[in-house]
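Friendly challenge for the regulars: who can give me the structure tokens for this chain first? No prize, just bragging rights.
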Amino acid sequence: MTWRVRSAAFARFPAALLVTVLFVPAASQADGLIPPLTPAQAAAAATAIQSYKNSPRGPYSRILWFCKDGTTLPPQESCREHGGGVQHAELLPQAKTFWDWNLHIGTILTPRKFEELFDAARDHHWLKELVLEKYLVEADQGWIYNKAVAYRGARQIEDEEKAGRAFLIRLLSDPKWSARNYHLAMQLIDSIPHGVEDSTVRRIRSLAAAASDADPRFLPIRAKIHSYPTPDDLKSVQTFLATRMPAEPARKALTDLAALLEQQQNPANWINRMESVKRRVGPGNIASRITALVEALRESGMETALARAAELSLDIRREVESSADGRRNLELLDLSRAVQDRAFDLRRPPSIVSRKAMIAHWIDHARMAAGGGLLSFRQLEALEAEARLLSGRNAVEAPAYRASLRYLSRSAEWCRATAARDFGPVVQHYLPVEPKAKGLIDHLLRSSAALPMVNLLEPILGDADRLAGLRHSIFGAGPSTGVTGLNPGIAIGPLYVLEPGREERIDPRGIYVIPQTAADLKPMAGILSLDSGNMLSHAQLLAANLGIPNAAIPSALLAGLESRKGKEIFFAVTPRQVVVLKEKDALSEAERRQWIQQPASAPRGRIRLDTSRLRLDDRSVKRLYEVGAKDSGVICGPKAANLGELASYFRDKVAPGLVIPFGVFQQHIARVLDGTGVTLEKRISEAVAEVERMRAAGADPAAISAYMYPRLAQFRAAIQQMPLLPEFEKEVTARMQAEFGPDGSYGVFVRSDTNAEDLPEFTGAGLNLTVPNQVGVRNILQALRNVWASPFTERAFDWRNRALIGTDRVYPSVIIQRAVPSDKSGVIATTDLETGEQNHITVNLSEGVSAVVDGGVAESLLLGPDGGVRLLQQGRATYRKTLKKTGGFENLPPLSPDSLLAAGEIAQLRALVAEVKAKYPPAKSEAGLVLPWDIEFGFEKGELRLFQIRPLVRFQEWKTLESLATLEAAPEPRQRVDLNERPQL
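First reply, four minutes later:
Bragging rights claimed.
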């Protein structure tokens, strides 16, 4: 059984800009491998961190000797008689408490054991904190060490480098770990001190010590050079010389120190270093690549040097991922880090004149991104294959040119997903105590090969849009890379930026900028998904069904959008995904007539819920395979009916289950709660009738909510707390034992299934509750009541009330289905979601029993009719869900295989779709068009399991779509694109 929360992997195209991330994609505050901080913990830690920034000792209390026999001694003594030891600072008691909260601030490497720092159970959370701390130190003037940088002896850099080097050598001795975590490994190389002290390093330290002895004013800089050396030290020494005017002998020591630091940072030393590494690694592929890069740097142009750097970085990755020689791997990664930095300096625009040549140069940047771990080899191969479709020709059709470049633009989202997978959860954990943490992912991307890769692609994408006759209009600006239309529609309303934790305060008239895949959204007029979107998220299915426009926008546009918060905005997405954003005041008179005064811009009319076929007198509990399509809207909802149909066709692939009909719920609420003599059913009807009266009178949505929300809370509480009717409780308990086994020996998913979902006019996707993996009859029966109550949440009511009349006659049936311990779970759409071609299959899946987990990116594939498999997104999960025997889920680190689906599993999915199309009568839209299917599935030990099937319903208001098409006016598209021509930049 899956519990579906779908990811951004179904976006038509990813955002193509790597800019400041407002909403960091990460494990939600209620889920993941790390328990979230309580408000009290967050407040205490935030206050303490601010105090550490102003303390001369930072997070430390004192410096001690830590002897091997466990003795601690003051700094003036020695561990000589205690078997030796190390000297470093001791954490404040308060800071030690923060470690219990997964905030390992002030980490000193020297005393840490490998297993402790490796932190396997939390997917290396502690290691990721080291990367975050280094970023905060650089970005926030030393962060918690701002005043403590001169606290001598807090960290002994020689001991730290020795400990760091030993840790990294052991870490990199596991090639399987390196292959799964290459991007993380590259960041750790940059964050964990591990240098081998050479004569230059020793000379720098001794000169710094001599200068501070002669001039105590230099002591803070000396302490930093000894404890936290960075390239900025040169500027600090030069500034001290120029502004403090030190006397001799300090001046001589500082002058020599500046010269030595400058020599150390000379680019020529980088080439010498490569030659030195080449001698140490010996003959072979790496040595040949080094020779080629050195020759290119000395003799060739930028393009050749970049290509050679990419080849070297990729070969280093291949060797590290296949070698158990940790010492050699560390040296190679140090070299790769230097190559990546040098390649970043080669990012200036190339002297290229043709489209074909620019794409070839772009591939070198993509290879550099793969060499740095941001792209996998699998992703790189997919990008290279797409680029070859262009490089092997002299001319292509304009739509094909644009389609290929849009596919290449997925690389930006793929890079972002890798960085977010590795560091999103740790950033999310730190945000409540240090808001500056949110900049880490942006920093990692902008300081990597991803930035020049994206910068080079942007103008070519604009060229492709122009040649295809498409142009977005974002507040009057021209083409905007990273803007993608997801769902056609029109909206006019105030603009808002959704803030985390404020989802309950949504204005239904508003147009909202939202995080990537926000769950449980209330109704709104328009959706601008930040950085990506999800074509099969529940919110998107609801939006698509109701004609609510939705577009993905890059964070680059966020500042402009925030400056317009509260203003009335015109927002439209056309059938060809052109996005138009204008201030309402900027509309011309003709546009006002077309969009404000005409029906095309008006909200879609509500339809009356059809209850004519209801059979509320049928209250007997059914086996899953005993219901079918004929029962949908009669005794049960479409989920149960379709799942029953699945069970009849694929008995061996559908887990056993029971269906509780509508009539049982109706009987549950047709009871008097108090001395008034009024049943709960009647109270619900009276409240809905009053809402309809208020709507008819033109009441503000806020007034309707103020009236209805308290009543909904009362209805939910009553449904959840009322005892079940004894006859029903006895029957369902007996049926569960017969179907599933003895009490406590099984787990089930308890799912709501109403008569107000999967309608041609309204999908209702995700509005009601699924309670996963309930164990024990008592828990299952309470989950049943909770599921019955879920249609009465504020969000469910608001969405239904927007589309339907007669919502007092909404009845939930319930599916109780045995839980399946899936190794991987997902969803199929029997269509290409970008083109609408129904001879393709779109697959979205993740590890574990949840199709997608919060903060991760699902694997997404497009299966073609010719047997081809097109990669849309590689899985980038932050954790995986597994079933607990006692009930509920356990979150574990992801296994992160290179590919989630084996060839045999893909074959099973193809066979399933073919069989469904052959056996199922086609579902059709109001316009008579055949609808694709949306199928939830899982794999248990390689065997296919099926959990749900439903028609994939989308917006089909053709009058509105035709009106929207008028916004696509642009220069006449060229049919053929000469790839040897200069692009129109």
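The CA atoms of residues 616 and 667 lie 8 Å apart. The longest strand covers residues 489-497. Your move, everyone else.
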